[in-house]
Design brief:
alpha+beta; five-stranded antiparallel sheet; four-stranded antiparallel sheet
Length: 273
């Protein structure tokens, strides 16, 4: 199962199960995005997501994860919160942005993705932050190729963000390998300067740029989970899980497998027809 470079390589049958997990995540995030509006609480979004995951026959990846045990089924990070925000009584207001991270397990295999959503009408600056972060994710995915290095992904993410203006790229939190566990080697940095292992057919990784309007430095709040910017700048977070197949890149957590966006970027689509 593991290649010489310590990547967990998946068989076609295992990728099919990961695709099922990825679709649970994709559909759950779509349902949450539809529900986001001024006046809803992050706890209500969590309840909706948990119901969607469980009704699909899957298990939430996040609930009870690590130490202290994560207490919810999704992460909801608002405005200056970068990642791992805990859902609860917080009421979303017009102009906020909320990053929603979701994971699901199907037959022991994981899917993991995130999206940042505007709450009503948000500022042009916040809209640009979300656009840059989403495009950086796809720039990273477009850098994936057989025999390429994991570090190519981070180099592409950083190059895109730097080309768009004076944004921060979070260094302390990275993408990761994924498969029989949610977080596995290798790390997938969002910055250039590292090589990493070579990518092979059957490689599955989660790519997740976190971009800020100010400095990239972060701090962990007293709940021991919520990561926020130190300077109060806003943050966006977009993530997909992908597989590298003999045909190309297959985005397991995109409803269409990433076909449309990969075609636009001139990248071979690696999923089924």
């Amino acid at each position: 199962m593991f290649g010489a470079n310590r990547l967990q390589l998946k068989s076609p049958d295992e990728l099919e199960v990961m695709r099922r997990a990825g679709l649970v995540v994709a559909r759950t995030l779509a349902a949450v995005e539809d529900a986001v509006r001024p006046g809803i609480t992050t706890g209500e979004l969590n309840d909706l997501a948990e119901d969607a995951i469980l009704s699909s026959g899957a298990i939430p990846s996040f609930l009870g994860y690590s130490e202290p045990p994560y207490p919810a089924s999704i992460c909801t990070s608002v405005n200056d919160e970068v990642v791992h925000g805990i859902p609860g009584d917080r009421v979303l207001a017009e102009g906020d942005i909320v990053s929603v991270d979701c994971g699901a397990i199907v037959d022991g295999w994981h899917g993991d993705a995130a999206v940042t959503i505007a709450v009503g009408e948000t500022s042009p600056e916040a809209s640009e932050l979300m656009r840059v972060t989403r495009e950086a994710l796809w720039a990273g995915l477009a850098a994936v190729r057989f025999g390429g290095r994991v570090g190519d992904i981070g180099a592409a993410v950083e190059a895109h963000v730097r080309s768009q203006g004076a944004y921060g790229v979070v260094e302390d939190y990275t993408g990761h390998g994924i498969g029989t566990e949610m977080h596995m080697p290798p790390e997938v940095p969002n910055l250039g300067g590292t090589r990493g292992p070579r990518m092979r057919h059957g490689t599955t990784l989660a790519v997740e740029p976190m971009v800020t309007t100010g400095d990239q430095a972060t701090t962990v709040r007293p709940d021991e989970w919520t990561v926020a910017t130190r300077d109060g700048g806003w943050a966006a977070h977009h993530e997909h899980t992908f597989a590298l197949t003999e045909r190309g890149v297959w985005v397991l957590t995109a409803l269409d497998g990433g076909a449309a966006e990969l075609e636009r970027l001139g990248v071979p689509y690696g999923g089924p027809d």
